[in-house]
Every structure is written in structure tokens, then in C-alpha cells.
Design goal:
- The chain is an alpha/beta fold.
- It has a single domain (4-140), classed as HUPs (Rossmann fold, 3-Layer(aba) Sandwich), CATH 3.40.50.620.
- 48% of the residues lie in helices and 21% in strands.
- It has six helices and five strands.
- The chain has a five-stranded parallel sheet with strand order 3-2-1-4-5, sandwiched between helices.
- Helix 4 (91-101) packs parallel to helix 6.
- The relative contact order is 0.24.
Length: 141
């Protein structure tokens, strides 16, 4: 039985697809949906700079915007048990902490996010989470 689903989002296309999959599963299983977003070291990823500049947002506001949009999508789909988690620092570590804290039955995340070229060389967040998580992981592409 799936009762708690972690959906890790970052504003990327794959993150949006992962959120949609997590919302669908949460609805089908009537599971709690924990939506997690992480700003690496409190810094806005370069891929979001243009969006942030045009909207005149700060890092905290970007996090809030991403989480509120995700919550709205989940509510529109009929999911009512939703928790929002904003974190800073290492994304993989933050996702793993959220999964442990909420006793997640499933972690859903995009296959490629907004990471830098350095992350590609070291391994993506999804790969790190998949290898270190105690809960099953669903990678959405």
C-alpha cells in the first residue's frame, strides 16, 4: 500500500512530469502527497535566473511560487492531503531527509533537473537519491 508519496520538484520539465505522476498516484491511492523543493545553498539555479529576473522574485519567493503552483495542481486533481516542504542545501540530501521524516512509501522525481554541468559529471540528484533511499523511487522522463 502506498500511503505517503514524496514529489521532488525543481521547476524543470522533468520535474513537472514527475509531479503529474505523483499527483496521479496520490489520487489513486488516496495517499499523502509531500511536495519537496530545494534551493541549492539558497541560490537560484542559473536556469531559473531569466524567469526570476522578469518576475522580480527572490530565492524564497521562487520556492514559494513553485510549491504553491504544485499544490494548486494537486488540489485541482482532487488530492487533499498535501504537505509542502521547502529546503536549502544539497538537493539529494534534502529529498532523502524528507522521505525519512515522512516515512515515504515512494519518491517520485524527474530524471534530469536544473542541475549544472558539474552535476552531470558527478551524477544527478535522482541517481543519488535512487541509490541512497530506503523507499522505492520512480524516475520520470
Amino acid at each position: 500500500m502506498i500511503s505517503v508519496i514524496i514529489a521532488a520538484i525543481d521547476g524543470s520539465g522533468f520535474g513537472k512530469k514527475a509531479l503529474a505522476a505523483a499527483i496521479d498516484l496520490a489520487g489513486k491511492y488516496q495517499a499523502q502527497l509531500v511536495i519537496v523543493t530545494v534551493m541549492p545553498d539558497g541560490k537560484i539555479p542559473m536556469e531559473l535566473y531569466e524567469y526570476v529576473r522578469t518576475e522580480s522574485l527572490y530565492a524564497g519567493e521562487v520556492t514559494e511560487l513553485l510549491l504553491n503552483q504544485a499544490k494548486g495542481m494537486a488540489e485541482k486533481a482532487g488530492v487533499s492531503n498535501i504537505e509542502l516542504v521547502a529546503s536549502e542545501g544539497d538537493p539529494a540530501a534534502a529529498i532523502l531527509r524528507a522521505a525519512e521524516k515522512h516515512k515515504a512509501d515512494l519518491i517520485v522525481m524527474g530524471g534530469r533537473g536544473l542541475g549544472t554541468i558539474g552535476e552531470l559529471l558527478l551524477g544527478s540528484v535522482s541517481q543519488k537519491v535512487m541509490h541512497l533511499a530506503t523507499a522505492p523511487c520512480m524516475i520520470v522522463r
